[in-house]
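Late entry, evening session. Most of the bench is empty. Finally got around to the prediction I had been postponing all week. Sequence below, unchanged from the version circulated by S.P.
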Amino acid sequence: MMDSLRHAALRSRSRSAQALGRRGEDLAHRYLQRQGFRILARNWTGPQLAEVDIVAEQDGQTVFVEVKSRAGVEHGSPERAMDDLKVVAQRRAARAWARRAGIEATGIRFDLVTVVFTEPPTIEHFPDAWSFKH
């Protein structure tokens, strides 16, 4: 009985976190468009299931954007959730995108956009948050 309750609670939290993430991606999408970005893809999945939240273009440069959202800052800032494994996956996906698009992977920029759902939501943009170099 307790296991089924625990699993139900986890599923509910998972759906809630997923919905929060989607809302954050929607806000980031609109924010980037207002900043002059042209959105090329959303939730693009590269090799080994490496998902990129937003692929955009700005001034002729391809930009891979990771979006991190939080309901509040009680548990730390959203950018703290960006770990080395996620960065490696983003690099792998960028290489695959570059191969398909026929562009130099090293010319791709990686940005981070964070969304905190305060009233009103706070959006921060970190251009060139990491590179292909370790």
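Two things to note before I forget:
Residues 2-130 form a domain with the Trna Endonuclease; Chain: A, domain 1 fold (CATH 3.40.1350.10).
The chain has a mean pLDDT of 85.
Will write this up properly tomorrow.
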